[in-house]
Amino acid sequence: MKILLKGVHLLNPEQKLDEIADVLISNGIIEKIGDIKESELQSENIYDFNGFYCVPGLFDMHVHLREPGREDEETVLTGCNAAASGGFTGVACMPNTSPAIDSAEVIKLIKEKAANHLVDVHPIGAVSVGRKGEGLAPIAELYEAGAVAFSDDGVSVKSAQLLRNALEYAGMFNAPIIEHCEDESMADGVMNESIVSTQLGLPPIPTVAEDLIVARDILIAEYTGQRVHIAHISAKKSVELVREAKARGVRVTAEVTPHHFTLTDENVKTYDSNFKMNPPLRSEEDVKAMHTGLKDGTIDCIASDHAPHSIEEKELEFIYAPNGILGLETELGLSISELVNKKVLSISDLIMKLSVNPRKILNIPVPLIKAGEKANLTIFDLQNIWTVDISKFKSKSKNSPFDKKLLTGKSVAVLNNGKMFYENEFVSLT
Amino acid sequence: MPLSSPHLLGLQGVPAEDIKLILDSATTFREVLERPIKKVPTLQGKTIVNLFFENSTRTRLSFELAQKRLSADTINFTTASSSTKKGETFKDTVKNIEAMKIDMIVVRHESAGVPHYLTKITRANIINAGDGRHEHPTQALLDMYSIKEKLGRIEGLKVCIVGDIAHSRVALSNIHGLITMGAEVSVCGPATMIPVGIESLGVKVYNNINKAIEEHDVLNVLRIQLERKAGTTFPTLREYHNYYGITAERLNEYNKDILILHPGPINRGVELSSEVADGPYQIILNQVTNGVAIRMAVLYLLGTRP
Description:
- The structure holds two protein chains of two kinds.
- By secondary structure, chain A is an alpha/beta fold.
- Chain A has twelve helices and 20 strands.
- Chain A has helices spanning 76-86, 104-114, 139-145, 160-171, 195-200, 207-224, 236-247, 258-262, 284-296, 311-314, 331-340, 347-361; strands at 2-12, 17-26, 29-34, 46-48, 53-56, 58-63, 88-93, 120-123, 125-126, 150-151, 177-179, 191-192, 204-205, 228-230, 252-256, 301-302, 377-387, 406-416, 419-422, 425-428.
- In chain A, the strands form four sheets. In chain A, strands 1, 2, 3, 4, 5, 17, 18, 19 and 20 form a nine-stranded mixed beta sheet that branches. A six-stranded parallel beta sheet of chain A has the order 9-10-11-14-15-16.
- Chain B is an alpha/beta fold.
- Chain B folds into two domains: 16-134 and 289-303, Rossmann fold (3-Layer(aba) Sandwich); 137-287, Rossmann fold (3-Layer(aba) Sandwich).
- In chain B, the strands form two sheets. Chain B has a five-stranded parallel beta sheet. Chain B has a four-stranded parallel beta sheet with strand order 2-1-3-4, sandwiched between helices.
- In chain B, strand 5 (158-162), helix 6 and strand 6 form a beta-alpha-beta unit.
- In chain B, helix 1 packs across helix 5 (137-151), helix 1 (16-32) packs across helix 11 and helix 2 (58-69) crosses helix 11.
- Chain A binds chain B through residues 193-195, 197-204, 206, 270-271, 312, 315-320, and chain B through 12, 82, 84, 89-91, 109-114, 116-117, 131-135, 166, 169, 172, 195-198, 200-201.
């Protein structure tokens, strides 16, 4: 089947591509870019995308798909649907499932569940068996089965020695270790430590708990010459540590979530557990540091930390409610509203952070927009003003603090693996 | 004039007129407590639930007595652990109790914010009887009442709260209430017990107890939670007593005229020496009596609010 995307603004900073053209796609493969005669096609296969950006499919390198173990909260299928709806064609999923992704069997299961979906799912293997911080997980076996990185996400790799070994072992495959940075002994709290936590009487987590592990990890990465990726960076000092480390050539990369560049601990004042996450929402100053870090390249990419939780769990008392919020379906809108429209990032920078860089960190080829390549594309409308409505989310869970928020910028369509998601439906392109 | 809010969640943001109204009403109820028949029909026909998710003997007894003195119907729901551990969520528990047609809820919970959450899921008047380390407004009100009863005023007094400020709900409520009523408020304790940013609430921080005794009219001495982190936030109870314990020697040396409050229960020989706990400086048992009057006032003002 042939389809025509009319008048799209093609943008791929990797190819130095920035032009307005028509794209002819045949059986999911880009056949031709340029001026294309409509007479070649049936009218229902012509999509008038005039004025919309068309970029290499967006990629979220930090999501929780909850399968296996908590299929009541999300499954590989519903998570992939949420990703497609949010404008993503690929995700990397974290290993804190039950059982953890610490065996080839679990990777195989996830890959099977994701087979034939528009969205590519790349599992991240556990660093340690059961994420317990004791013995190393079978990293080579996991890598061979398809793991693109390794992490004990939810917690930091427990000891410096274990991290060193993991970095060196995973380094044989050039796979990064992704670190949730939090010193356990200082993190016995539920929100950021500040005057707000003092006023709210909620047990605090200081920013230094994050800074400490960021510093540790940078030093060990530097010592071993291996790659560490800082997940959901949230503290100003941590950004400074990464900036300094990059300047002296340490192989460190970092991601930030939309909520950490949008919200502050002031939002916790309602005691709404949809503002409870780990790392916790920080201060205005930290949010500004996220913007600066994104702008100057210290922070390489945006990732959602998409964390579905059941309603009954999120409705618990604040100190008992689980950490985390949904991210996939608000990520692009928040990034455009908060970063592009507030002049923190250009569109081209945004595509680097949401599509190009996360793939590079995980050694996944960046999709090219040219004839002969598979169509792996996201088409989005920079101008669309829309209201977030959690009841329309594809995700199985509903825990988002952004419900009813007005956002600017929305995905129009995604294409990948011979499929297209458009107007709330998956259609086959073959 | 009625209270400005249908709930008493904390003293942060509560206007001075409301605090004054509660304190004045408590004077009337304090008088009722001295009568041979200590009961008034004020809340007849009202149903009040005491929802205690955390152990508390005296606060619950004080509320219960206040409710009985006002002729309200009261029921108690006490559980040491959250109902969620039994499979029923907190919300379900509350919804079930509300379905029994109740008018007011007095709640104690180890998580800050639970009273606020209750206002969103029920239509009852909510009274916070202590939420986590956040607030315990009726305790601060009875402290203020007791200070005023003894010294004739609150405005202009120098009041210092001593102890584990970081883990105390009594401290925060006292800070908000006392500042609103025009007192100068300080806190005193080891640095590990002073929460971040407390100065920005308008309080002065002392680490030296002798200096704190010297420079204040009133000390509100908090209970040291014996089960809490001895060895981490402070080295030993002995060291705490030696450096922060209120003793007769200290008071005699630094300020003989100081007034000592304590929310109870006292750890004798830790934050207060027995001599001080039983001595002439303190009004600890007056606080307990006044607590009933304050709770009657709060229940009355909320329960009859139009």
